[in-house]
Write a structure and sequence with these properties.
By secondary structure, the protein is α/β, with parallel strands linked by helices. The protein has one domain (45-234): Rossmann fold, CATH 3.40.50. It has 9 helices and 7 strands. The chain has helices spanning 2-14, 22-31, 37-44, 48-54, 79-83, 95-105, 142-152, 178-188, 197-205, and strands at 62-66, 87-92, 111-115, 127-133, 153-164, 207-218, 221-234. It has a 7-stranded mixed sheet. α7 runs parallel beside α9 (197-205). The structure holds S-adenosylmethionine (SAM).
């Protein structure tokens, strides 16, 4: 297990290139990690199952995962339940991770893996639920992606976001602290850009159903507790 995690740790230590085309940077960053992605990310990316539960996905729903990676979030749902959904679109631009998602697609008639950026995705349908699991902070065009998600949601549809953040929920006086500076720099190295505007935009764009802040010990560095939030909003 540890040897497998080493590939992911090595890529995280090396970091993501700061220059070049976004897709190429993602492909380069994730290429060496694709085989170890799911094991390591299940220790690093907390709250994904909670976010899914709070999204209240029901039989017959159509759902879309924006920035799906390997599509690992689907593993939190029972396969029988996945079969009962109208449609599941897994959207991403990173080829090495999408190759893994395609292995999952083979098991379901209603799961579609789509190689497209979240902001440019224009399917011929609207969704009951759209979620971003640790992906918004890696999208330079996060606002356009979010606006696209809004457009693609049915009236009263739900959006779910789980992601790292630099500090707790927005407060009237939102002062930068040493820790928020630390986490912003820490994640920036791996192409994850923390920004208080994600949460304020979500609050402005959607009716808040649930919004909570948590911390999660980092794998192998449990003295460091990374802040993350879950947001559920209604269109
Ligand atoms: C940290 S991974 C999270 C993957 C997955 N959602 C999960 O929870 O395991 C971030 C993902 O966002 C994807 N991503 C970044 N920018 C994107 C964009 N503009 N459109 C679609 N996906 C994007 C990356 O390729 C990567 O797969």
């Amino acid at each position: 297990m540890f040897a497998n995690d080493l590939k992911s740790v090595a890529s995280l230590v090396k970091g993501m290139s700061k220059v070049g085309i976004h897709k190429n940077k993602l492909d380069d960053f994730y290429r060496a990690q694709a085989s170890s992605y799911n094991d390591f990310r299940s220790k690093l990316l907390a709250g994904r199952f909670d976010m899914l539960k709070k999204l209240c996905i029901r039989e017959g729903h159509s759902i879309a995962d924006f920035g799906c990676g390997t599509g690992q979030v689907l593993d939190y749902l029972n396969p029988t339940f996945i079969h009962s959904l109208e449609r599941v679109d897994l959207v991403d631009i990173c080829s090495p991770l999408l190759d893994k998602a395609k292995e999952k697609e083979k098991n379901f008639m209603n799961v579609n893996v789509v190689s497209c950026s979240a902001e440019e995705y224009r399917p011929d349908t609207l969704f009951d639920r759209i979620y971003f699991s640790y992906s918004m902070t890696m999208m330079p065009t996060w606002f356009e992606s979010l606006r696209n998600a809004y457009r693609l949601l049915k009236p009263s549809g739900f959006i779910g976001v789980v992601d790292f953040c630099s500090q707790p929920l927005l407060t009237p006086v939102d002062l930068p602290t040493k820790m928020s500076f630390f986490w912003t720099k820490w994640f920036q190295h791996s192409g994850v850009h923390l920004n208080r505007r994600y949460q304020s935009t979500l609050i402005g764009m959607f009716e808040t159903v649930y919004h909570e802040y948590f911390t999660q010990p980092l794998p192998y560095l449990s003295f460091l507790k990374a802040p993350y939030y879950i947001f559920i909003g209604r269109k």
